[in-house]
Design brief:
This protein is an alpha+beta fold and about 350 residues long. The protein is built from 8 helices and 13 strands. Bound molecules: ligand DP6.
């Protein structure tokens, strides 16, 4: 972790400035579910970084003599005092690696391309964008990080804000969590997926059906905690690591069928953990199940490669290759869209 300590110290600064960054959301194919202190995942995870769903953040900083950082958070130029505690916790966690923070006061203004009420977690893109802003600020103060070092540090910092955020710093496919299957993988930051990716998985489509809007019923913080002492936790952590290993030849060979089996198994395993935790939860809604059944029926009837994944909520992510965009897009519009609240969906993809 020494490599992430800033060359800068907590001396007095006279510089003011503005930095900005954009960071996308991501969808995990191999799920991170369960962690230990501080933000260390219990299993490796792998995700597609999305293209359209992102957070844009502007960070204004000016010197402050109090010896403690101060911050105000705005969403679309509107002051949001209830957003501040999570960011204060984040800043306290990363101060060790950014000792100059307590010499400044900050105004953070953020904008999400997806509606706040959409049920899409903004923590991955939000913490990713903030971490990118902070590393840019470090360089403006003379931190001297090369672009490679800056992204690695941004991923490391983003993890301390929200685990899945560390995967959003890089495009395409990324891996977070140490696994012998992926060289240079680490529990401390994500790495760009280093192996061959078949054409089938380029510009892979993710259409998000917004089945449930608003705040998630169970926050991921609570969800991760429920894995502590969970009777099936150890087996689940092993199974995620095995699934990740199995995915590597699949991504190389373009085997869509096998991809679907692994990805849907992961999604249902995550939900199975929540159904068997103490207390237990069913995070799917009836419409989530209808959508899954429709997808399975469609696949059986047409042989077309449409798959789903789920996060810790009711929304369905519909995954399919770019080459099948037209016919699968038609099916989604005709048969799946009506299961979403007011037919709302977000058409996204991973490059
Ligand atoms: C189900 O990254 O939101 O989306 O580290 O507590 O902020 P914290 O959790 P978070 O958990 C994401 C869980 C997931 C699966 C995944 O993205 O891998």
């Amino acid at each position: 972790m020494k490599e992430f300590k800033s060359k800068l110290n907590s001396e007095k600064y006279t510089i003011s400035g503005i930095v900005s960054a954009k960071c996308p959301s991501n969808i995990a194919l191999i799920k991170y579910w369960g962690k230990r202190d501080v933000q260390i995942p219990m299993n490796p995870s792998l995700s597609f970084t999305l293209n359209e769903s992102n957070t844009q953040t502007e960070l204004k900083f000016k010197p402050n003599d109090s010896g403690e950082f101060k911050l105000k958070v705005f969403l679309d130029n509107e002051l949001k005092p209830d957003f501040a505690p999570k960011i204060i916790t984040f800043f306290n966690r990363i101060e060790e690696f950014m000792p100059f923070l307590n010499r400044f006061e900050f105004e953070i203004n953020t904008h999400n391309t997806f509606p706040h009420s959409s049920g899409i977690a903004s923590s991955a893109s939000g913490m990713g964008a903030l971490a990118l802003c902070l590393t840019e600020m470090e360089n403006q103060l003379g931190g001297n990080l090369s672009e490679t070092e800056r992204l690695k540090k941004a991923s490391f910092l983003a993890r301390l804000g929200s685990g899945s955020a560390c995967r959003s710093v890089y495009q395409s496919i990324t891996v977070w969590g140490e696994t012998s299957a992926v060289e240079s993988s680490s529990d401390l930051y994500a790495v760009p997926y280093p192996y061959e990716i078949h054409e089938n998985f380029r510009n892979f489509q993710d259409t998000i059906l917004l089945i449930e809007e608003g705040e998630k019923e169970v926050s991921s913080t609570v969800g991760h905690k429920l894995m502590e002492g969970h009777p099936y936790a150890e087996r689940r952590f092993e199974s995620a690591a095995e699934n990740l290993k199995k995915l590597i030849p699949v991504l190389k060979e373009g085997n869509l069928e096998e991809f679907g089996i692994i990805v849907e198994h992961e999604a249902l395993s995550l939900h199975a953990m929540m159904m068997t935790s103490n207390p237990y939860y069913i995070l799917m809604k009836p419409n989530t199940l209808y959508v899954i059944e429709e997808i399975w029926r469609f696949r059986k009837e047409t042989g077309l490669p449409l798959y789903f994944t789920l996060d810790a909520g009711a929304n369905a992510h519909l995954l399919f290759p770019e080459k099948n965009k037209v016919e699968i897009g038609d099916f989604i519009d005709k048969s799946l869209k009506s299961y979403a609240k007011q037919g709302k969906m977000i058409k996204d993809f991973s490059i």
